[in-house]
Amino acid sequence: MRIALHTRLRADRIAxxxxxxxxxPEELGDAIRSAGVTSWTIWRSGTDLFHxxxxxxxxxxxxxxxxxxxxxxxxxRMAELLxxxxxxxxxxxxxxxxxxxxx
Length: 103
Known about the structure:
CATH class: Alpha Beta
Mean pLDDT: 92
Oligomer: single chain
Number of strands: 4
Largest sheet: 4 strands, antiparallel
């Protein structure tokens, strides 16, 4: 399953966000992969972030990561840097951005 998400950075925190992503904890990366994610890419345009992730089951991934201490710490840190957090809805029909067109 492929999910697209949108987040928005605080304008004064761009450098911190990018620095954090150069040092994503290995334990978090391992946990994300163990939760069924096969790829996750983030693009930035100004303060807008666009994520595309591929995973076996988005709802399961969210449930597995939700209370994991390394993820809780990471999410708390990201909340300090983000103005708008993406929709974490686990319901597949509402997960992330709606598809408008696909080739």
